[in-house]
Design goal:
Family: Belongs to the class I-like SAM-binding methyltransferase superfamily. rRNA adenine N(6)-methyltransferase family. RsmA subfamily.
Order of helices and strands: HEHEHEHEEHEHHEEEHHHHHH
Strand content: 15-25%
Organism: Streptomyces huasconensis
Protein name: Ribosomal RNA small subunit methyltransferase A
Helix content: 40-55%
Enzyme class: transferase
Keywords: Cytoplasm, Methyltransferase, RNA-binding, rRNA processing, S-adenosyl-L-methionine, Transferase
Structural class: alpha/beta
Length: about 290
């Protein structure tokens, strides 16, 4: 155990643990283990984890970030889908940070299926999300656990840009609007490739999401609003009049809904805020 970083895992620790478990990071699950203690401490700092926080972590892997979270937070619940990693993590916690073992809980499950968590309600979500499922997992967790106030996720840089994009940006799309339904979203830093094992062939980015103090003011349901968002971006090069014709029943009906919502039928989805999408959803009946 390195003394410089106390309980945290370094590159040699990670490789040793992986070898002992017969673990080879798999592309299929987008596994890239963080091997740098300074990086996980930086993530915890950037996430503004407080001593009274109950943190949920998705995809803890071998436990690099989990240990750093336990150093600061009151409680950490980790959700791990991998059988071998889920079985090994509690022992790693006991071995490296025994005084915090009772502040840790493990849920062996696919995060997309998790509907409840043991222990206190989570106040923060901090995770190094596998690239291939980052957006659906993030949206599912924010939707399922409304007590999560602050989120910091490490994702592929391109996904980070999309999540944090503002209307009018080339990369603004479905993830940007849906994340913004729940939270104020911003880029919170970049992470180099050399802090991972194996080193991915893409850069990573940190995204901060702070839950909206007031939900989007609308009489439409989230499902109704998201249906408009999905339709608008399914054919993003088209005007909203054309893109929403399937959703509304016809191009004329789409135009009626757009005009009623105060949105130009010639606009494109990438120029609209989440509030404008909500207004369109409210006026679907104008389309009827």
């Amino acid at each position: 155990m390195s003394t410089e970083h106390g309980a945290l895992l370094g590159p040699a620790d990670i490789r040793e643990l992986a070898a002992a478990l017969g673990v080879r990071p798999t592309k299929q699950r987008g596994q890239n283990f963080v091997i740098d203690a300074n990086t996980v401490r930086r993530i915890v700092r950037t996430a503004e984890v407080r001593p009274d926080d109950c943190v949920v972590e998705v995809g803890p892997g071998l436990g690099s970030l989990t240990l750093a979270l336990l150093e600061t937070a009151a409680h950490v619940t980790a959700v791990e889908i991998d059988d071998v990693l889920a079985a090994a993590l509690p022992a790693t916690i006991v071995a490296r940070i025994p005084e915090k073992a009772t502040s840790f809980a493990l849920v062996h499950s696919d995060a997309m299926l998790v509907r409840e968590l043991p222990g206190p309600a989570p106040t923060a979500l901090v995770a190094n999300l596998p690239y291939n499922v980052a957006v659906p997992v993030l949206l599912h967790m924010l939707d399922t656990f409304p007590t999560i106030e602050r989120t910091l996720v490490m994702v592929q840089a391109e996904v980070a840009d999309r999540l944090a994009a503002a209307p009018g940006s080339k990369v603004y799309g479905v993830p940007s609007v849906k994340a913004n339904w729940y939270a104020d979203v911003k880029r919170a830093g970049s992470i180099g490739r050399n802090v991972f094992w194996p080193a991915p062939n893409v850069d990573s980015g940190l995204v901060s999401l702070v839950r909206r103090a007031e939900p989007v003011k609308t009489t439409a349901s989230k499902r109704e609003v998201f249906a408009v968002v999905d339709a608008a971006f399914a054919q993003r090069r088209k005007t909203l009049r054309a893109a929403l014709s399937g959703w509304a029943g016809s191009a004329a009906a789409a135009e009626a809904a757009l005009v009623a919502a105060g949105v130009s039928p010639q606009a494109r989805g990438e120029s609209l805020t989440v509030e404008e999408f909500a207004r369109i959803a409210e006026h679907k009946e104008a389309a009827a």
